[in-house]
Write a structure and sequence with these properties.
By secondary structure, the protein is of the alpha/beta class. The chain has one domain: Formyl transferase, N-terminal domain (Rossmann fold), CATH 3.40.50.170. The strands form 2 sheets. A 4-stranded mixed β-sheet has the order 3-4-5-6. Strands 1-2 form a two-stranded parallel ribbon. α1 packs parallel to α2 and α1 packs across α6. Bound molecules: glycinamide ribonucleotide (GAR).
């Protein structure tokens, strides 16, 4: 699932292509018709469905559509790779401990939107990224993997975002493998 540029989506697909991750991406779901992630799916020839949140009356009705889609594609797990919508119990209860989310902070610090900016404003010297199982409250749930990074003196938000994302691209495929081991009982 993605809403944005899709660099994390690409990191998953590329890890599979490079045989670093044994997995298959059955489908990409995006909520924005013109996001970069959709273009990337086209390039990789991966089915991509647009489930546009503005077309749904409630978060629940959107999530019902997501569940239908994932059932149709018979997915074993779901990765929120920059999915910028809050998900509800409709999706979470159906896929308990089967949904992963990547977040650009060292959770439990700086949940929600603009996590990188939040870290800069708080003046912390170390931040990073986290991959966790999705629970009912936002950006919480068991942490699968984290990477810590220093924030340099006078660093810009853009430079920090680039460094955090570079680490996200490494840690997300690893976290998927770790989750997969749990799903397969190994
Ligand atoms: C990533 O940095 C991810 O951590 C963040 O959105 C970005 C998506 O980038 N997610 C959140 O902030 C979720 N709360 P991408 O579309 O290039 O993968």
């Amino acid at each position: 699932m993605a809403s944005g540029e899709g660099t994390n989506f690409s990191s998953i697909v590329q890890s599979i292509k490079d045989k670093k991750l044994i997995a298959e991406v059955s489908v990409l779901v995006v909520n924005k018709p013109f996001c970069g992630a959709r273009e990337r799916a086209k390039e990789y020839d991966i089915p991509c469905l647009v489930i546009d949140h503005t077309k749904f009356k409630s978060r629940e009705s959107l999530d019902n559509e997501l569940v239908k889609t994932f059932e149709y594609f018979q997915v074993e797990g779901i990765v929120m790779a920059g999915w910028m919508r809050i998900v509800t119990n409709i999706l979470i209860d159906k896929y308990q401990n089967r949904i992963l989310n990547i977040h650009p902070s060292l959770l439990p610090s700086f949940r929600g939107v603009n996590a990188i900016q939040q870290a800069m404003e708080a003046g912390v010297k170390i931040t990073g990224c986290s991959v966790h199982f999705v629970k009912r409250s936002v950006d919480s749930g068991e942490i699968i993997a984290q990477v810590a990074l220093p924030i340099f003196e006078n660093e810009s938000t853009d430079s920090l975002r680039m460094r955090v994302q570079a680490q996200e691209h490494k840690v997300l495929p690893k976290a998927i493998a770790l989750a997969g081991m749990r799903w397969r009982g190994s």
